Amino acid sequence: MQLNSSFKQSEKLSLKTEPHPEDGEIDKEAVEVPFTRPSLPPSTGDSVTFYTNQRSNSLAFQKSEELQKTLLAHQHERHLIILQDFPDPDALSSAWTYQLIAQQYDIKCEIIYAGTLSHQENIALVKLTNLPAQRWTQQTLKSKDLSSYQGFVLIDNQGTTSQLLSCIQHANIPLIAVIDHHSLQAELKSEFVDVRPYVRATATIFTQYLQVGLLTLDSSIAQHVKCATALMHGLRSDTNRLMQAQEEDFMAAAYLSRFYDAQLLNAILQANRSKRVMDVIERSLKNRIVQNNFSIAGVGYLRYDDRDAIPQAADFLVTEENVHTAVVYGIVHDEDDELEVVIGSLRTTKLTLDPDEFIKEAFGQDSTGRFFGGGRTSAGGFEIPMGFLSGSNENSAYAKMKWEVFDTQIKQKLLRLVNPKDNPIQSE
């Protein structure tokens, strides 16, 4: 395995990796890494852009080298790739790319999530590309022999949005790698960490890994074409159709353009909204209140499988005239486990509003210090377990009363930030 560069080569740096005690002799040529350091810019006019690119390229090389060392130390193992409970295209495509990279080191990875795929584009992505992601419920975990796994990986999350994490940790499976573009949620005790909050998509990070040679894409291999298409979708979705993309995102998209299938991506994007999603959007329009350019809407109870209707409703509400931020939330009911959780999504076009800070300040932390939510540029989300109050909604009067209590409390917490001087319960 050799890392390579698409830039003009000016010098080479050898990646020296200590042999893993169980691996025996490692071929020294297999870890020779051509390293490119760009030459000085010809003029000073573009110096800021140049040095920004130079720093980004250098970090991509550095992290790729570190990841290669980590993978070499874990050859012939079985790992779990844990995604957030409701994975998006960025998470799914990045996890698939990691799986393909790890295969070269005879590391078998299983991509798992605890929630469901309910967004029509996510369902289409998995079905049309045969993306190998599996749903593992708490019941599934009980039937698995977790001792057969030697490590786990967190991609596009840091464990705070996965129900599976506590069980995996309880089984004493070590954390091998964390690769994410969200703000740091907690101190991570992992062998490899690549967390870049300033990067718009985790798919961009993985595309940079591909660019320096951790995996050489081949247009004649159908799986590579589908993975590149998934990465392009992940990058596109997390940058709001590239409208909020930065230079490194465009460079990643340019690289993927050599390999992805435009017709396949179009088929994924053309997936129709279900009637249930349209009903939730209609409810959000009916129930919304607008104050100080914030649109806030509670949509009541939703089935577990319809959870992704909430971010789609937020995407819709933020397009209203004189609205720069939309928050939509509801109570999602999991009939299998009789659990309920308040789930919400935030979308914003206001450049000075940090979704991560806003959500963390609004909802705070639980008793263990875990934040109920967070975000990235232009988007965020929160999940608040209902605990003792979960389930038992057969009595419609009780269910209505329970929703009104949570609806009022959430509005109060949000409007305390939106209208700090006003009575947060009152609305026009």
TrEMBL record:
Pfam families: DHH
Domain DDH: from-to ranges: 81-234
PANTHER family per UniProt: BIFUNCTIONAL OLIGORIBONUCLEASE AND PAP PHOSPHATASE NRNA
Matching Gene3D superfamilies: inorganic pyrophosphatase (n-terminal core)
Bias type Basic and acidic residues, positions: 9-26
Name of the protein described by the UniProt record: Bifunctional oligoribonuclease/PAP phosphatase NrnA
InterPro entries: DDH_dom, DHH_sf, Oligoribo/pAp-PDE_c-di-AMP_PDE
Listed SUPFAM superfamilies: DHH phosphoesterases (SSF64182)
Residue segments, region Disordered: 1-26
The organism's place on the tree of life at top rank: Bacteria
